[in-house]
Design goal:
single chain, 4-stranded antiparallel beta sheet, 3-stranded antiparallel beta sheet
């Protein structure tokens, strides 16, 4: 249960971290907007949670909280001055937002669950992200025309290096990556040479590519796989040949198969 809890917390760490990074993007409006985007209160809550959860495993928690508290006081003073029409304070506002962003990176990346060196990811060119609508599956998307690859980020930090592990041929889609429990292999979705979506397996060193799912004689699509603890694989398949009613059956319904 502790491993599952840590996995859930690790997912939340990345969600919080990237959400805060997005919130802290440079302002496009007037003075003080950067401080609103920096969201010091959200950062304080994240640090408080990390401190309460990990205790001694998060040794700089009190230090981070003190910095956050000091920055909050500065932000409050700046916001008061801005409401009073003090335009000169704008420069202080921008400088404080920069300090808050630096603290965010330092405090959230100090999470003890981030004590690993490599992160598996899918890298895809902006403009064609390969994300179906919530009623669609992979088979509703075009199988080709993507600039994407399975890659590894190391170290797991904003300045880490991204190295390509697997690049599909003919700009085919590659995604739905799931790492095996032993971290020695992975499964993912990719169209086969016939253009049907299938499930593939690959070693973490980029070797041993093989198609796992069988070619369906009735032209079904198989995708979005997941390893089960007993060694089997569960996946989505359109071989049931049902259509989504609310779009007139234009998109296929997927059922779960083993």
């Amino acid at each position: 249960m502790s491993k599952l809890t840590d996995t859930i917390r690790l997912s939340v760490v990345f969600i919080v971290y990237f959400s805060l990074c997005l919130a802290a993007r440079p302002a496009v409006a007037g003075p003080g907007e950067e401080l609103k985007r920096a969201n010091i209160k959200a950062l304080q809550r994240a640090i408080e949670d990390l401190t309460a959860t990990f205790g001694d495993r998060y040794p700089r928690g009190k230090e981070f909280l003190q910095k956050a508290s000091d920055y909050e006081k500065e932000a409050s003073a700046i916001e008061t001055a801005l409401r009073g029409g003090d335009a000169k304070i704008a420069q202080n506002s921008s400088a404080l937002a920069t300090k808050i962003e630096a603290l965010r990176h330092e405090a959230l990346l100090a999470n003890p669950l981030l004590d690993f060196d490599k992160l598996l990811l899918v890298r895809r060119q902006e403009g064609r992200m390969g994300l179906p609508q919530n009623w669609q599956g992979n088979c509703s998307m075009g199988a080709h025309g993507y600039d994407n690859q399975i890659a590894v980020l190391s170290p797991v930090r904003p300045g880490g290096k991204i190295t390509t592990l697997f690049q599909p041929k003919k700009n085919a889609f590659v995604g739905d990556v799931e790492l095996h429990f032993d971290a020695e292999k992975m499964i993912f979705s990719m169209p086969n040479p016939k253009g049907r979506w299938q499930i593939y397996e690959l070693g973490v060193d980029g070797s041993g590519l093989r198609q796992v799912s069988t070619d369906d004689p009735v032209d079904g699509d198989n995708y979005d796989p997941c390893y089960l603890p007993d060694g089997r694989i569960i996946f989505c398949s359109s071989r049931c040949f049902h259509g989504v009613p609310c779009v007139g059956g234009r998109d296929k319904v997927a059922n779960l198969f083993i």
